[in-house]
Amino acid sequence: MKFFIDTANLQEIKEAHSLGILDGVTTNPSLMAKEGIKGKDNIFRHYKAICDIVDGDVSAEVLATDFEGIVKEGEELIEIDPKIVVKVPMIKDGIKAIRYFTDKGIKTNCTLVFSAGQALLAAKAGATYVSPFLGRLDDVSTDGLLLIEQIVNIYSNYAYETQVLAASIRHPMHIVRCAEVGADVATCPLAPILALLNHPLTDAGLAKFLADAKKM
Ligand code: G3P
Questions:
Q1: For a designed S-S bond to 187, which of 6, 85, 166, 179 qualifies (C-beta 3.0 to 4.6 A apart)?
Q2: Nearest alpha carbon, ligand 1 atom 6
Q3: 130 phi and psi, to 5 degrees?
C-alpha cells in the first residue's frame, strides 16, 4: 500500500519524506487555506514547492465546477510539474472532465466519493485515483471501511486500473484496516502515520535492552 500525506504543510511533507516511506501528497482547498496560501501565483508556487520535496504524485484540486472551467484549470495545473495529478470533484461535469483528461493521458484523482456507485463512475471515466472519504462517513455513523472494501472488490471484479486512494483517514487503525482490505493508497496527516510507530512493549523492551547494555 502506498502512503500519501494529506497536507499542504511543507514541514510535515519534509518530515514524512525524510522517513523514506512517502509515496505522494494529496491537498485540497481547505488544507491550502490552512497554510494561508492566497492568490493563484502563490498557490501555484506552493504546489511547485511540494513537488520539489516528494518523488511521487501530488494531487492539486480544481476549484471550477463546470466542464470548461475544470479543463482549463486542470491544464494550467499540470504545467506546474509532471508530478501534478488533477483532483476533480465527483459531479457530472467532473466525470466528463476526468474522461477528457484520461483521453489526453493526464492523471486525475476523483475526490469527494462517498458511495460505490460514484466510485464505479470514476473508474468508467478512467480516473487514475478514486478518493473515498472514510473518516467523514464514520462521522455520520456509516462504516467508511466497508465502502473501501466494496470499491476494492468492484474494481477487482472488472480489473479497473483506477487506484483506491482511501482518504479522510483519522487514526492508525484506519491505515491498518485499509491495508487489510487492499486499498492501493492511504492518505492522511502525519500524526496517524507516526502513531503506527508506537507500542508500549517496544518502548519497554528498548529501555530494558539499553539498561542491560550498560552491564555488557
Ligand atoms: O483530502 C481529502 C480528505 O483526506 C479530507 O480529510 O479529515 O478533512 O475528512 P478530512
A1: 6
A2: 168
A3: -120, 135
